[in-house]
């Protein structure tokens, strides 16, 4: 058999950075966002020996382990090693991993890969993990076991899927509120949003560490409070379908977030954003911690074509995408069905045979 899983990448609209300690532990952090139809995939093929072979298709890398070895975190597929330890994998297997977006895209790729990997392992071992336990397990693998800097949103967003308003007060105190948004509002929001790849790759850990360092700075702290308040306002306007107001709040939030760290934006990103606004966009933001990756732009439908053309003229790459309302999914493939066989079809004109 083959065990497969796929987990959706996420876009955050507001609250980014407030889900990072110490702000979320002291003040309470919030995130409003959704998942999209770009995924991280995992396939597991059980083996009859003690060898674990991991293929990272994105990095064109293959690494081999033994189930009895003590895994050492050396920078080579450490997420996989930590997941193997967390799930106590004692049987040989072959693992294939790949993702629809590159690392550093701002779409939460590493967390999404982690959730896809853990979900497939849980399916293989017949361990029933609910969404909260799955997200917390992935958080523990990344943030605790590996010490990777970051917040809470990525693991919870990809596990739950869809539109959510998430509240964070530290580990074991997370509440995910699914948003019941009318499908016509979702369709219109989707049509009015543009995702543009800036061509840059951000190093989120460096930006987050700088943000944490600035927590004691009064202006940075107030900027975090503003980002949090704007996330609540975005939720209200989105639920009511006031999308132009939602787009304007994106603009306010982006300007506030840039005050949290001078590493969040750069002249190239600012130039792309300013061009979009000149061409008719109402607002937008950089996805992820900052520094590069995807720029999310909201514009009225009659300015959409002009905004997209302007971004492409400046070297941006427009992504074709849609919202995804489901979270991580896993399933088992019965490979016995793959065997070749002959199919006989009897018709009045005669008897026919096909090998399939």
TrEMBL record:
Gene Ontology molecular functions: ATP binding; fucokinase activity
UniProt domain GHMP kinase C-terminal: residue ranges: 234-311
InterPro entries in UniProt: GHMP_Kinase-Related (IPR052203), GHMP_kinase_C_dom (IPR013750), GHMP_kinase_C_sf (IPR036554), GHMP_kinase_N_dom (IPR006204), HddA/FKP (IPR001174), Heptose_7-P_kinase (IPR014606), Ribosomal_Su5_D2-typ_SF (IPR020568)
One Pfam entry name: GHMP_kinases_N
Keywords noted in UniProt: ATP-binding, Kinase, Nucleotide-binding, Transferase
Domain of life: Bacteria
GHMP kinase N-terminal domain: residues covered: 79-162
Alphabetical GO biological process terms: GDP-L-fucose salvage
Membership in a protein family: Belongs to the GHMP kinase family.
Protein name: GHMP kinase
């Amino acid at each position: 058999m083959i065990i497969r899983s796929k987990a959706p990448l996420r876009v955050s609209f507001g609250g980014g950075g407030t889900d990072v300690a110490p702000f979320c532990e002291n003040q309470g952090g919030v995130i409003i966002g959704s998942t999209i139809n770009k995924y991280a995939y995992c396939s597991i093929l059980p083996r009859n020996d003690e060898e674990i072979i991991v293929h990272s298709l994105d990095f064109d890398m293959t690494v081999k382990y033994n189930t009895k070895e003590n895994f050492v975190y050396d920078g080579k597929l450490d997420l996989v090693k930590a997941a193997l330890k967390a799930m106590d994998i004692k049987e040989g297997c072959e693992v294939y991993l790949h993702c629809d977006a590159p690392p550093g895209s701002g779409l939460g790729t590493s967390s999404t890969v982690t959730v896809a990997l853990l979900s497939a392992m849980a399916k293989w071992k017949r361990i029933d993990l609910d969404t909260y336990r799955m997200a917390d397990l992935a958080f523990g693998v990344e943030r605790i076991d590996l010490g990777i800097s970051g917040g809470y949103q990525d693991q919870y967003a990809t596990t739950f899927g869809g539109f959510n308003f998430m509240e964070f007060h530290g580990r074991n105190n997370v509440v995910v509120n699914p948003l019941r948004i009318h499908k016509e509002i979702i369709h219109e929001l989707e049509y009015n949003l543009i995702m543009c790849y800036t061509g840059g790759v951000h190093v989120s850990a460096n930006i987050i560490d700088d943000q944490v360092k600035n927590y004691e700075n009064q202006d940075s702290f107030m900027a975090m409070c503003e980002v949090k308040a704007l996330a609540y306002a975005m939720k209200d306007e989105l639920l009511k379908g006031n999308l132009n107001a939602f787009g304007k709040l994106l603009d306010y939030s982006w300007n506030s977030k840039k005050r949290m760290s001078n590493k969040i934006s750069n002249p190239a990103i600012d130039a792309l954003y300013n061009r979009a606004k000149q061409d008719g966009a109402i607002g937008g933001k950089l996805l992820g911690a900052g520094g590069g990756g995807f720029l999310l732009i909201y514009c009225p439908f009659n300015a959409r074509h002009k905004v997209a053309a302007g971004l492409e003229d400046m070297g941006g790459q427009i992504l074709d995408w849609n919202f995804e309302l489901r979270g991580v999914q896993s399933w088992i493939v019965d490979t016995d069905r793959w065997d070749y066989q002959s199919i006989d079809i009897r018709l009045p004109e005669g008897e026919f045979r096909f090998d399939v």
